[in-house]
Amino acid sequence: MLTRLTSLFNAAGLPAVSVPVALADGLPVGLHLAGAAGRDDSVLDAARLVERLNPRLPRPDLGERRKPR
Fold first, then answer.
1. Is residue 26's pLDDT more than 80?
2. DSSP string, 12-64
3. pLDDT of residue 34
């Protein structure tokens, strides 16, 4: 799922990351960060800062797990 959010940036050669920041109706909401080509370090630094400043989220309750087909 998360690769779907960053694939356009990957194809363009731009660094991107999605960081979970909140829950809405029990499901995670992510903040998408992207940067200029070659600035992977800046994007990762920003993601680390968001994670450090944001409280740790509980794991979402997805209910009963489905059996694999």
1. no
2. TT--EEEEEEEEETTEEEEEEEE--TT-HHHHHHHHHHHHHHSPPPPPP---S
3. 93
